[in-house]
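Extended Data, panel c. Modelled sequence:
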Amino acid sequence: MADQLAPWLQRQPDIANLFNPAFLGIVLRSAVSSYSRVRRGEGLPIALAFVVVGLSLSPTVRRHRPSRSVNMHSWGRDNPDAKVEAAAAARFLVPMTREAILCMTQAGLLQIDGSAIKVTGSLGKARDARGARGNLSEYLSMAKFVGSWLARSQSVSSVYESLGMRP
């Protein structure tokens, strides 16, 4: 089944290293925190977790990063290459995102609350992108942006529709 990951030691090393659950979990947690801030404590719908990671890590999306005032539908229409890449990344990362959610919930850094994900626990000194360097800082910054951007969307289905995907 394409949605299942190979056992850790059987994964391609580059894929396992680049998309490890702790890294993807921190990216996701950053977006959840930002989403919740804009939505005044509301958790990120679980269905959007898969979109968040793809949008946050896509180099094309980062190059075409919109302003916060641009709605996702307009951005997708104006940036078809970024839209296609984000959708492909989201689909590719589904099993790894699931693994990241599990990792972070087991670590007490995210919690599932009904159909939403909320931030819980503390990262200590590594609270956010302030202490991060290089690419990690860029990914966390983009995840924060994506979280707040998605929080301004009307619904989960409108986000998926804007990216040409189905939940």
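The longest strand covers residues 110-113. This feature is highlighted in the accompanying rendering.
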